Amino acid sequence: MDTTVLPPGLNGSLKVFVEGGCDTEWQPYTQTRFYTNAFVISDDKLLLGFKKRGFGANLYNGFGGKVDPGETSIEAARRELQEEAGIDAPLEHAGTLIFLTEGTEWAFHIDVFSARSYTGVPTETDEMRPQWFSLTENSVNGNDDRLGLGSPETTTGSLPSIPYSRMWADDIYWLRHLIEGNKFAGRADFAQDGDTYIMKRFWFGTVC
C-alpha cells in the first residue's frame, strides 16, 4: 500500500520523483492566490520568456500571471500568453504547483499549462522577452547549463540551452516531465536572501 504523505496543499494520487531540502515543517498558510504559467513546445524547441520587471524579474519562465475574478485558470492562461508573448495556443493542463515564500500567510497555487503548437509571432512586450531554447537531452537535463554551455548570450548559429541557473530553482525538477507530457504536482517553500529565493523544502511527484 502506498503510504506517501503529501505536502499540505496537494491531493490526489501522486508518486514522488524528488524531494529534499531542510528537515523542517511545511510553512503554514491561511489563504491561496491563483496563478497560471504556460509553456509552448514546437518541434525540438521550448519557448520561455525573460521577465523584465516585477516579481521574478531577470529570470526566465513560462508566460502567466494572476487569475482575475470571474476567470477560469485556462482563460487566464490564454489571456496572459497573448498579453505577454503575442501568441495563442491550444493549452492543456500539465501540472499544479504550490509555492510559499517566507513571511507570507498565503500560497501561490499555480496551474501549469503546455501546448505543442501556436499561432502568431512571439513578440517582446513590456513585461516579457520571448526566446526559443533547445530541447536536446543535455539541454533538458541541465548538463549544458551546469557546464556553462549554450547560454542565451553566447550561443550563435543554434538555439541556446535551457538556462536553469537563471530560472526558479524548482524548474529543473519538473520541467522535464512537462516536456515529456507527464502530468505532475509539487510544492516548494522558499526563503528570501536579498533578491534571491532559495528553496527550503520541496516535493514533486507525477500523477498516477
Describe this structure in words.
The protein is mainly beta. Helices cover 15% and strands 39% of the residues. The protein has 4 helices and 11 strands. The strands form 2 sheets. Strands 1, 2, 3, 4, 6, 7, 9, 10 and 11 form a 9-stranded mixed β-sheet that branches. Strands 5-8 form a two-stranded antiparallel sheet. The longest helix is centred in the middle third of the chain and has 13 residues. The two termini are 14 Å apart. The mean pLDDT is 93.
Concise structural overview:
The protein is mostly beta strands and 208 residues long. The protein has helices at residues 73-85, 137-140, 143-146, 171-180; strands at residues 14-21, 31-42, 45-51, 60-61, 87-88, 92-101, 106-115, 119-120, 128-134, 184-193, 196-207. Strands 1, 2, 3, 4, 6, 7, 9, 10 and 11 form a 9-stranded mixed beta sheet that branches. It has a two-stranded antiparallel ribbon with strand order 5-8.
Give the topology, please.
Layout: E1 14-21, E2 31-42, E3 45-51, E4 60-61, H1 73-85, E5 87-88, E6 92-101, E7 106-115, E8 119-120, E9 128-134, H2 137-140, H3 143-146, H4 171-180, E10 184-193, E11 196-207
Parallel strand pairs: 2-7, 6-10
Antiparallel strand pairs: 1-11, 2-3, 3-4, 3-9, 5-8, 6-7, 10-11
